[in-house]
Structures are given as C-alpha cells and as structure tokens.
Amino acid sequence: PLTSLSGMRRMAQLALGTHFPARLLRALDRTDGTPESIRRVGVHWATEQCVDLLDHGVDGIHFYTLNQSTATREIYATLGVQSSSQLSS
Fold this sequence. Notes:
Number of strands: 0
Number of helices: 4
Mean pLDDT: 88
Distance between the termini: 22 Å
Order of helices and strands: HHHH
Number of domains: 1
Radius of gyration: 14 Å
C-alpha cells in the first residue's frame, strides 16, 4: 500500500510510465499533507482495491510490504481477515 509521497515517487521512477488514478491523486491533494493523512489515504485506497478484487473472485492477493507490514495488517483488519490464508483459495 502507498504509505508516503516519497514512496509513491519512487514507485513511479522504478516503473517507467506508471500512472496513478486521478481519483487517488485527488484524494491525496485533499489531505493536509501530513505523513499520517497520506498513509491513511493509501491504506484506504489499497483496502478498496482488495474489496473490489475479492468481490470479482480473484484467487488470492499478494502484498509487497517493503518493510511496511503495519499498513498491510491494517488492511487485513479492515477486511476482517485473521490470516493471509483466508485470502487465497
């Protein structure tokens, strides 16, 4: 999940041609710019993506935590997931 603007910029540099959805960029623009507000938007965005994927029957979800597993655990909690095995068939 997106947890900082610097991480977002780094992602864009590593994946040349990366475009972020306008809705996500607008949500980030509406924050007060604090690290916590940026992180909150990123976790919410990732959670919504997970809900959409699960609603469409994906076999599982894999997270690259990049040493930021707290955000992933927050997503799990919001989804009501106790164990990562609940996200795969």
